[in-house]
Predict the structure.
Amino acid sequence: MANQETILTVENLGVKFDNNEVLKGLNFFVQKEDVLAIVGPNGSGKSVLFRALLGLVPYSGKIQWASNLKIGYVPQKFNIDKDLPLSVEEFFNFKEEGSEKIMNILKSVGITDEHHIEKHILKQRLGWLSGGQLQRVLIAWSILDNPDVLLFDEPTAGIDIGGEETIYNLLKKLKDKRGFTILLISHDLNIVYKYANNVICINKEMVCFGEPSTVLDPTSLVKLYGGEASFYKHEHEHNH
Amino acid sequence: MAVKLVSINTNMNTIINPLFLQLLVGILIGLGAGYLGSFMILKRMSLVGDVISHVALPGIALALILKINPFLGAFAALFLAIIGIWFLERKTELPSETLVGIFFALSLALGILITPEPELLEALFGDITRTSPVDALITIVLAFVIFFTMFKIYRKLTLSVISKQLAQSIGINVSKISFLFLFLIAIIVALGIKVTGVFLMGALVIVPAAAAKNISLGLTSFTRFAALFGGLSALVGILFANHFNLHSGPIVVLTSGVIFLLTLLFKK
């Protein structure tokens, strides 16, 4: 790899909520244009890690981002239901980037038909979009102002965004085209093997960090998921 | 100073048509209540919006007992209530509706008990016929404050409703925005008690906005229709009440109810 510039260093990171240790002793780094996957069982602190990286929760230890980085974030939790009176266009206008840029960004996340975008996407309520369209729109929104890093908290495991493409193909394509770095939380180890060049496994504390093929060995998987490990390992292969 | 104000008041009262004053104050409050109500609904706080006005009564009672302006008493009580709601919001992600419902009902009971009898009816149901030019001036200034502040914060407020984390990640102080918004709610409810009274002011916040939601697809039309319906309810309600010599508060709220029913026919 040409780019070996480290953009994030995390040392001995810990997070406590009311004296309850949610994360402790995390050490890892991220280099430019990495795809770092964060894996771990439910409640292992993955989303908390993101929030700590974004500076939204108090933490101990060190989180050092390279200077002048712009970070995009797709959180797990959205309150978007069908009767939320907000059109897609209004949602994008919150960022004040201009309609041409919005059109381009929607094209880049795979909604290609301009007429369709104008008549059926932008004028529609955000809550009326299908799961896949909403996912694309949220990604488009988060990369609208050209972030250097994208933090992606997988809202639902393995969501089908339509056609042959998965959300991960799309992220990979965007990354290759725009050259940003991705940190993603995933529940699906197949995704990790396929798209990530580094993985950090956490279960409140750090279980492993490194290349997926090297560090995701049976020992760490058992340590991570307990009895569930076999389920994760033998899950079917996706064909794309 | 007080003497001077009173004399200005009486002078102005003879110059300005009282119905005009009532309409001016009523419409401004209707516009503000409707507009803020739309964000109350967006934040899924309909119940809170509906009953928050009940909290004002003990404040009004204390103000009457202490012989200070009832508006200040109402505002002080509402301010305490919004601080309570704000703390609950910070503590949990879910709106703590049960707790709010109980607390607000209790404060209404307490208020009824301690409000001096002669003023009780006016406090409960409002009496816009007693609007003075000074009231109108206060309403104009505060309506301006409400719309100006909302213009500054409505995007941040909406974004923090959609996703608190997303909003925080782009540097929005969710807690501060929420507090500002609730503060404006306290202002409009305290103002509106003159129009509809303690019992019904919450309805003027929620009903026009609920009607607007029926016919709107996006945020802009939702919030504008909500303001429009609030203003329209006040206009029609006050004129109607004036013509038939009825209490205007209930008529204003009933008007908003009629608008709500009509919008059901055009529901999106």
Summary: The radius of gyration of chain B is 18 Å. Residues 174-215 of chain B form the longest helix (42 residues).
